[in-house]
């Protein structure tokens, strides 16, 4: 299958590598492909420069957001939450009619807000939107012809693509969105990654809870110690 | 042990009944004991009148908030989130030096906010405070001499007091607060309820994530179907 991954961060790389391993034709999109390839410094999360990473993953090409979105039959949004709506709106035509998976958490890093605990990046960020709206809903409103599915958002993307790395894989992944067929398509992708418990939380409004869970995720990660991978299982 | 439970709602009743069953001396606090006992209608959540419930639980007395707080060595706050800071501040002296467990979610029911999905009580509420503050932190700031522990907040209180009702009890309860001894005291109480996996999320700031998880909890509950009890297990 032709799958587009928009973004070149650590989360996007996990999907790109796994999808290529599974034989998919992966089209990676970035704002400025030349600029991305020219970078020689690690990104803000400490990932090595994308050009260096790409050299170790032959057969994957880097395109503009528009070219990657046009090529993909299914699209994964790995653009950071703060920039996602603007970047995706600019390629609205290329995304029309397609399923778009969004896993972003709309963190903002406001220097005027006191951040009471340290995170790996030094601050405890807040969310915008939050509570009465969500990034998932914003993207769906901005792209009415696209079938937006919020998914992957409740844990690290490295273990989203490798669920069996945690507790033998017996934990829960959540999906939400307005289109049942699109959610089935995403569930099929998750099944190919190894997921056995995918819970449909209903309409895109459930993005609120999925994004707001980021604070619990962070607190659990700090409690277990950084580097400990974990997931959550809905125990019935 | 002498334990005060402030509040008479469904969550408070679950703790009152279980603590009495375990042989604790339970002191229940309410704003206006005579008014509470005089009520003949179900409360806003559909619980039967407290006087009727109390008649089936002999040996438990109803006091004012101040008298119950004064009598308890350990105090459980079951006052709804919207009123908790004011009601607890009024009994600050009675709570000084004690451990106060808070499980409230600071939902507000604002008729001017559009609530996009139905809940058992008809609206999808929003949280206040949220994201950059929490009710747990507000209570701790209002009562600096009290050791506030946020706990019990991530699931129904009926299953907090009976964890083995779900998946044989193999799920996770969270505690957060500034005082390690107070968190140990709460963990001991949870162990007496049957909990085997209690995760300390750190300082009271972790109340943010615990309270904001309410939206995920609601979405999971809707997905599983109302009446399905569930918990979440942190799978390492």
From TrEMBL, chains A, B:
Domain Pyrroline-5-carboxylate reductase catalytic N-terminal, residue spans: 2-105
Keywords: Oxidoreductase
Name of this chain's protein: NADP oxidoreductase
Keyword set includes Transcription regulation: no
Source organism of the structure: Streptomyces bambusae
Keyword check for Oxidoreductase: yes
One matching Pfam family: F420_oxidored
């Amino acid at each position: 299958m032709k799958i587009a991954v928009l973004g070149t961060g650590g989360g996007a790389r996990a999907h790109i590598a796994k999808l290529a391993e599974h034989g998919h034709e992966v089209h990676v999109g970035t704002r400025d492909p030349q600029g991305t390839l020219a970078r020689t410094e690690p990104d803000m999360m400490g990932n090595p420069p994308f050009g260096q990473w790409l050299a170790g993953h032959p057969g994957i090409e880097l395109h503009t957001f528009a070219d990657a979105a046009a090529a993909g039959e299914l699209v994964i949004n790995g653009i950071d939450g703060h920039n996602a709506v603007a970047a995706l709106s600019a390629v609205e035509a290329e995304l029309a009619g397609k399923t778009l998976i969004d896993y972003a958490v709309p963190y903002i890093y406001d220097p005027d807000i006191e951040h009471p605990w340290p995170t790996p990046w030094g601050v405890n960020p807040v969310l915008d939107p939050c509570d009465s709206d969500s990034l998932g809903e914003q993207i769906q409103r901005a792209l009415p012809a696209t079938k937006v599915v919020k998914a992957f958002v409740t844990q690290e993307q490295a273990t989203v693509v490798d669920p069996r790395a945690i507790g033998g894989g017996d934990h829960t992944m959540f999906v939400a969105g307005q289109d049942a067929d699109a959610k089935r398509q995403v569930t099929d992708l998750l099944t190919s990654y190894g997921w056995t418990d995918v819970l449909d939380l209903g309409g895109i409004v459930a993005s609120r809870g999925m994004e707001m869970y980021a604070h619990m995720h962070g607190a659990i990660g700090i409690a277990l110690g950084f580097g400990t991978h974990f997931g959550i299982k809905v125990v019935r």
